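Re: the request from the purification team.
They wanted to know what the chain is likely to look like in 3D before they choose a buffer screen. I agreed to run a prediction and write the result into the notebook, where they can find it.
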Amino acid sequence: MIILGIDPGSITTGYAFLQVDCGSVKVLEYGTIHAPAGHPVEDRLLHIVTELESRLDTYRPEALAMEGVFFAKNAKSALVLGHIRGAILVACRKRGMSFSEYPPKVVKQAVTGDGSAAKEQVANMVFARLGIERSDLPLDASDALAIAWTHANPAPLTAALAPHSKRPAGRKKKASVADWKALVEKMGGKLP
């Protein structure tokens, strides 16, 4: 299975293509798509989607994992980000891809074990987990890798579901898929 991870942005959108095969994860490509800030929103949308579509045609991913919506103080920025997310989602759905979104806290928890980890910690850990050299790319690229990695490796999230205070010593509660989905939805995400 090939997974596309997206960290959407109106100027810089991070992307990562991971191939998952029998538990092993291979990085196919990752980077950023940069849309000039001075251009109108519709031109930035066109640029981002056009660049992404050429990569979609190359790698033919089956799943899209995108960072979930966050609460922005600036309504205009949130609206523009919604346009970017929608354009990306349409391009991927036209190709039959499934869609999942993960709130930033869930991605941080999955990659580092700490839902409040700094972006730099997430970048360092995802590079280590994927066995690739740290690069000078913007954090948007490493965030996209982390999002794709989270989709490919949901197991660390399920461990976080077990209520530590209610569990007798030495006994672990197994989290169900429903518990995991409820946690992701509670944190603002959506799963298929």
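For the purification team: Residues 63 and 98 are 5 Å apart (CA to CA).
Please add any questions underneath this entry.
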